[in-house]
Design goal:
The complex is a heterodimer of chains A (about 200) and B (about 210). Chain A is mostly helical and about 200 residues long. Chain A is about 65% helix and about 0% strand. Chain A contains nine helices and no strands. In chain A, helix 1 (about 15-20) packs across helix 2, helix 3 crosses helix 4 and helix 7 (about 150-160) packs across helix 9. The longest helix of chain A has 23 residues, at about 25-45. Chain B is about 75% helix and about 0% strand. Chain B has helices at about 10-20, 25-35, 35-55, 65-70, 75-85, 95-105, 105-120, 125-155, 155-165, 170-195. In chain B, helix 2 (about 25-35) crosses helix 3 and helix 9 packs across helix 10 (about 170-195). Chain B is elongated, with a radius of gyration of 42 Å. In chain B, about 10% of the residues are buried. The chains are: A mainly alpha (about 200), B mainly alpha (about 210). The interface of A and B includes residues 62, 68 and 201 of A.
């Protein structure tokens, strides 16, 4: 491949897609490296089941990569991949009952190992053990509150405040008018504030 | 801090918390917030929530995640090129035997000729001399035939006449010489480019 591929990390998403379309495996791997955490996190926060989230996130990447030649450069690559991830996730949620959130692990977990594997772990950069514990407890409370939101509010809140996506991109991803997205985020935040009224948030 | 009768709209407070208002709108809203305990409290609550949400971590998939994805991905162009390459390769042992035999067949008459010449006392040096002379004569003959064909076709005469008309006098011959000196290498270069360009464009598997 060309010289540009040697510095895959410094290339834009569009450049990487072009290289991937020419058959560069390194470009595929770089795109995977860039998006596996955000995509998995979004899906995990939506379905609250690690195994299911891995399957859905994996299916997202497989669909995106196997259709890479159909990518429309008029849109952001991130919008495209998040759109596919959210569509798959919403379809999956609609097909079956959504598991309620538990910071202690999925309610489908049957063994101690499974419970540990599916538990939501909230880490913090604080080194003080008391602050660390407080941050973990607060983070866990927020995760629980997010998990109680309606799927569409949850999706909009996660994309806006955790994935830091602009409103316009969220509207593209969710295929909704901008006003509707703003309403979802407003209502989601209001519900979160009510749920977290007893905490310092 | 006083308590005004009117309060900021919720969307203004949210945009203030997200810092997405224009400087003028922000200044106006902050002016109100400084005087209004309720809006000030709501703004603090919105900011705290946004801060708490944005500090939530990303989750990592399992270490086998990337390998699992790549195992299911068909790298588009590579697949198409491999198919194109395989189309020209024999698929059976018999096919390979036929292909090798076919590619060696033209060498048999040459080998027979060399054996025959060696039997008549022809050394490799003498053979090279005969071949070289034959090649030079063939190239020279082709050049002469080509030049004759160009002159007979009238193209050369036309270029000379047009050159004379354009530059005046009898300098048309010089113009024709320059034109041919440029045109011959140029056409050779274009032919080379044409031969090096792949017949089909880049294709992708769907």
């Amino acid at each position: 491949m060309g010289k540009s591929e040697l510095n895959a990390t410094s290339l834009t998403d569009h450049d990487l897609v072009k290289l991937a379309q020419k058959g560069s495996e390194k470009a595929y791997r770089e795109l995977l490296g860039r998006y596996q955490r955000p995509v998995f996190s979004l899906v995990y926060r939506m379905v609250r089941d690690r195994e299911q989230a891995e399957d859905l996130a994996q299916e997202t990447f497989v669909r995106v990569f196997n259709n890479i030649d159909r990518y429309d450069p008029a849109y952001k690559f991130s919008s495209w991949i998040f759109k596919i991830a959210t569509n798959l996730t919403i379809d999956s949620i609609r097909r079956k009952e959504v598991p309620t959130v538990s910071i202690d692990g999925s309610r489908f977990a049957t063994s101690a190992e499974d419970i540990a594997a599916t538990a939501i772990t909230v880490e913090s950069g604080d080194e003080n053990p008391e602050e660390l514990l407080e941050a973990r407890e607060l983070g866990a409370e927020i995760e629980v509150a997010i998990g109680r939101l309606r799927p569409e509010y949850r999706q909009a809140i996660v994309l806006r405040h955790i994935e830091d996506r602009p409103y316009e991109e969220i509207a593209q991803i969710m295929a909704l008018p901008l006003g509707t997205v703003k309403t979802y985020i407003h209502r989601g935040r209001k519900e979160l504030q009510e749920s977290l009224a007893h905490t310092r948030v | 801090m006083t308590e005004p009768n009117e309060h900021l709209q919720p969307w203004i407070l949210e945009e203030l918390a997200e810092d997405t208002l224009s400087p003028r709108e922000k200044a106006s809203a902050m002016e109100h917030v400084r005087r209004c305990a309720r809006c000030s409290g709501d703004l603090d609550a919105s900011r705290a929530l946004i801060q708490a949400l944005s500090s939530l971590p990303h989750f990592d998939p399992s270490p086998a995640f990337a390998a699992g994805v790549m195992a299911r991905v068909t790298i588009a162009a590579t697949a198409a090129q491999a198919v194109a390459r395989r189309r020209w390769l024999p698929r059976t042992r018999r096919g390979w035997t036929m292909a090798i035999a076919g590619s060696l067949a033209p060498l048999l008459p040459l080998f027979a000729l060399l054996t025959w010449l060696a039997g008549r006392g022809m050394t490799p040096g003498a053979l090279f001399g005969v071949g070289g002379r034959w090649f030079t004569e063939a190239v020279w003959s082709l050049l002469v035939r080509f030049t004759g064909a160009v002159v007979r076709s009238g193209a050369f005469q036309w270029v000379v006449t047009t050159g004379n008309d354009l530059v005046g006098g009898t300098r048309g011959l010089s113009v024709a010489g320059v034109l041919f000196a440029v045109a011959i290498p140029l056409s050779g270069w274009m032919l080379l480019r044409l031969l090096r360009t792949p017949v089909g464009g880049m294709t992708h598997a769907h």
